[in-house]
Design a protein that fits this description.
Helices cover 74% and strands 3% of the residues. It is mainly α. The strands form 2 sheets. It has a 3-stranded parallel β-sheet, sandwiched between helices. Strands 1-5 form a two-stranded parallel ribbon.
């Protein structure tokens, strides 16, 4: 069991290690010199850790924003956090989740080797979340452990190769090439954002190329535009929460200064993410050539969502803010309809909304970023509300999965099982 924990959580569940192993394998297959293999492997891991570190700083700032916003506006309901529901699932079905994760990764490699879907899913933690979701849904259908592991592993392997393919036509428009794929299980929303962008806007009117008059031209620098946008939102949340709530969170820092620091910290985190992604791509793409040539022809690495942030940094904020507005609107509508109310938690809304904004921007410029982000915000509010009753069946309460791909897969499997009499 201890060995299984090492394989699942320390290797397959750790994206930096998984990426590093792929870089090591790719460079070795290309028969590069030992110096290049060591350098390429280490820089791929460090690049990933840099952007993961930036993401961690962003998560802390967004979590503080969420606390102030919830306090200020009295938000109550279910929190859509994959990390939370996965942790709950592991307390009940740790072995089953682990075995599905291992079997699923092997199936992913087989599907990529023998079918036209050449995507190898390297976002290890997202595969872990999917393993937890499949465990929850299959257990809700009263399947035994053996059937759950086999069926869950096969489904995970197929999903890991198919979902990146869904977003790849728009991923090519984001990156301008076919070297990498999206390894984040929200591909349905990202593909929809790309499609919507084509319908509502013009790619030539990109958020990164907007011609702004006079002093507004400072917003062309994404550091400035992100800082000012987040500062406004942070102060709205802080004023709504009040001085006492802000200073209990700030650790003694003035309630008027604290939002400014948090906003600028968030902007700095975005810069770190983009720097790390550029370093990672500089190593993993050339290394993957070896795997593509020797083991899995035309294989492509499917990487975590911040990988697209450097292609349109301003669109990330446009997408996030649009998604958040969509989530707040849905929260009100769900409450009025008497359904489970999903709180628009800032952390998933940033990473998912920002990525949707980049996809929408690639095909429809700023209008596409707004439309893609807004619709995605609605999807990651309504979907979790529909999935939540299945979570409750096996005793997992208070949280659910926000990712669109999880929601669709979970609902299809569950109701298909019900139709078959489970």
């Amino acid at each position: 069991m201890e060995l299984m924990k090492i394989i699942v959580f320390d290797l397959l569940g750790s994206a930096p290690i998984l990426v590093g192993l792929m870089a090591l394998l790719g460079l070795t297959l290309q028969k590069k010199s030992p110096e290049k293999i060591i350098t390429g492997t280490l820089k791929a891991i460090v690049g990933f850790l840099i952007f993961a570190g930036g993401a961690g700083i962003a998560v802390t700032a967004l979590d503080n924003f969420q606390k102030l916003f919830s306090k200020g506006f009295g938000l109550k309901g279910v929190l859509p956090l994959a990390e939370a529901v996965t942790a709950l699932a592991q307390t009940k079905f740790a072995t089953v989740v682990s075995l599905i994760m291992v079997l699923g990764f092997l199936c992913n490699l087989l599907v990529a080797r023998f079918t036209k879907f050449k995507y190898i899913f390297l976002t290890g933690q997202h595969n872990l979340y999917l393993a937890a979701l499949l465990t929850v849904v299959l257990k809700a259908l009263n399947l035994n452990d053996t059937v759950t592991v086999i069926l869950g592993g096969v489904i995970l392997g197929i999903a890991a190769a198919l979902y990146p393919a869904l977003a790849q036509p728009y991923m090519r428009k984001v990156t301008g090439n076919d070297d990498i794929a999206m390894g984040h299980y929200v591909t349905i929303a990202y593909a929809l954002s790309g499609w919507l962008g084509e319908k509502v806007g013009n790619a030539e009117e990109s958020t990164e190329k907007l011609k702004l008059p006079g002093w507004l031209s400072i917003f062309k620098d994404y550091i400035v535009s992100v800082s000012i946008s987040i500062i406004v939102f942070f102060y709205i949340a802080s004023f709504a929460a009040g001085k006492e709530a802000v200073e209990s969170l700030s650790g003694g820092v003035s309630w008027f200064v604290y939002p400014l620091f948090q906003s600028l910290t968030f902007t700095a985190s975005l810069y770190i993410i983009i720097t790390g992604v550029r370093m990672l791509l500089g190593e993993i793409v050339p290394a993957f050539v070896g795997i593509s040539e020797k083991l899995i022809p035309n294989a492509k690495p499917a990487l975590d969502c911040p990988v697209v942030f450097p292609y349109a940094p301003t669109a990330t904020v446009v997408g996030f803010l649009s998604a958040y507005v969509g989530g707040l609107l849905c929260m009100v509508l769900l409450a009025m309809a008497g359904m489970t109310v999903i709180i628009p938690v800032a952390i998933p809304y940033f990473f998912i909304g920002a990525t949707a904004g980049v996809f929408g921007n690639a095909t429809g410029g700023w209008k596409g970023a707004v439309a893609g982000g807004f619709v995605t915000g609605i999807l990651i509010a309504v979907g979790p509300a529909m999935l939540y009753p299945i979570m409750e069946i096996i005793g997992l309460k208070g949280t659910t999965f926000p990712e669109t791909d999880f929601v669709v897969l979970g609902l299809v499997i569950y109701y298909l099982g019900k139709m078959l009499g489970r």
